[in-house]
Each structure stands twice: as C-alpha cells, then as structure tokens.
Amino acid sequence: MLDIGIIGMSPGNAHPYSWSAIINGRFDPKRIGAAGYPAVGDYLQANKDTLGIPGARISHVWTQKREVSEDIARHSGIDHVVDSLPAMIGKVDAVILARDDPEKHVEMAKPFLNEGIPIFVDKPLAFSNADLQYFKDQVHAGKFLMSCSSMRYAHECRTLKTEMKSMGTLQLVTAVGKKDWKKYGVHLLEALFSSLDDPDPLWVQHVGEENKDIVVLGFPQGIQATIHLFRDISSTFQMSFFGSEGWRMAEIKNSYSMFRENLIEFVRSVEAGKPRLEFKKTVSIIRALLGAQESFENGGKRISLK
C-alpha cells in the first residue's frame, strides 16, 4: 500500500478534497458543500461506486491552515494531519502538491525533491523560466517529478483521437474556455497537445487582450491552433478540429473521470519507479504557456519555440 501525502490549498481549488476522496474512496457530501464546493460533492456522489484507487491511500495532509487540513482529513478519511512539510518526510512514499498557484510550486516541492520522494505537481508546473529550469534540473538529476493538467486524460479527447483519421489532413484546431491564461491556459494546451500526440510547436503569439486571451500556435505540417480564454463567458472547455474531409467537436465535461485517470497514472508511475508521462511533453506545454505570456507582454510579438 502506497502512503501518499497531499499538500497545499489555493483559493477556489478543491483538489485536496476531491483527489483525496477519489484515492481513499471516502467523502462527506455535507462537509464538502460547507467548504464551498457543492459541485464537487455532486460528481463524487454520482461516481461513488468507483471511488478508491487500489494499492494507494492519502495518509497525510498539510495545508496552510490547520483547521482546513483537519476538515479535509475528516472529509476523506485521512489518518494524519501534519503541521509542516518536513513532518511528512520518512512517512510517505509519494506526495501530491495540490495547489494551482505556480509561484509556490518550487518552494513546496523542494523539500521532497531534495529527499528523492516522488511528487506530482498540479498544473501549471511553472509560470517563469527560472522555475521551469529548476524543475528541468531536478529531472535531469534523476528526481521523480510528474506534472500535467488532468485534461490529458479526458475521455472526450481520447474519443476524438479515435476519429482523427476520418477528418483527413488536419488544418485547424480551435479551443475555448473560461477564466485566465495563467492557471487555465494549461488546461486547453494539455488537451490540445495530447490530442495531437504531443507535437513540438514552432511558435506562439498572443493576439488578445487582458481577460480576453486569444493565443495562436503554429505546428509542423502547417497546422495552426487558436486558444480563446475569456474571463466572463459561460463556463466551458471545448475543442474543435477541422480537416480536409471533416470536423469534430469535443466539450470536456467529465471532471471526475479525468481526475481519476490522472491519479491512477501517478500511482502506477510511483509503483513503476518512474513517471509514465515523459517530462519533455510537460516542458513543451509550459514553454508554450510562457511564450504566450511573453508575447502578451511584448505587444503581441510572435515568439519562436524552436
């Protein structure tokens, strides 16, 4: 049985609650509703017969506030609440860093990477070239690090991939979502890249404005993609693929399914002793994320990613 620690909490991000419940197979719908995440309680309730991941459990939890940690522990059946990150070292086999504010990721991951403890870092892994370089150096040194958006494992995208050949020569992909580029651009990038079998983009350009992000990417074979993230539109994550012989659209709705698949992949990776997701794929996505931000900050300049 793998003992996994879960660390961190950021505003609006229910992952410490939901991911702990998915792994441990336990949740309290009233408690998660009171914590401000009733929709999470709804999808856990709808999928309660598939909760739990064999061979693993969340055994330890730490967040910035003891009372929040205790609430998560009661919600998901976690045995140990700790008062510091180092208190987990020697007690857990792996760690999930479950907050999505990337400026905190190096600081929080470092104690575990230093000790060689496998860690999964929530998206986006980094939002600066310096932080990305730190993580690249850790992987180069042989440390176990896995990071991605769960949209990599979305069933809607997997289904679309099976239909790709019927579209003929792919020309254009459009992706649309709600919220901001910093935290949510990586979702659509991950869904886009994984659906295309992770090609290396040639360039990226931000042609939108603040709170109305429009990002264009160029890929080999002439494929172009546009990603639209608007803060004030109705909530959605969707992609449309256009080829010479047909087109397909996928709206990604099943959060539970993609979270579960992502967590299973992390557990399987820890059991295997190395990440099943190649880190270079994560680096390519984060470079595109950072390149689009650089373009925005430089008046829409096209940024080479070669």
UniProtKB/TrEMBL annotation:
Gene Ontology terms, MF aspect: nucleotide binding; oxidoreductase activity
InterPro entries: Gfo/Idh/MocA-like_OxRdtase_N, Gfo/Idh/MocA_oxidoreduct, NAD(P)-bd_dom_sf
All copies of domain Gfo/Idh/MocA-like oxidoreductase N-terminal, residue ranges: 35-135
Pfam families according to UniProt: GFO_IDH_MocA (PF01408)
Record keywords, A-Z: Oxidoreductase
UniProt record similarity statement: Belongs to the Gfo/Idh/MocA family.
The protein's name in its UniProt record: Gfo/Idh/MocA-like oxidoreductase N-terminal domain-containing protein
Originating species: Cyclobacterium lianum
Lineage: Bacteria, Pseudomonadati, Bacteroidota, Cytophagia, Cytophagales
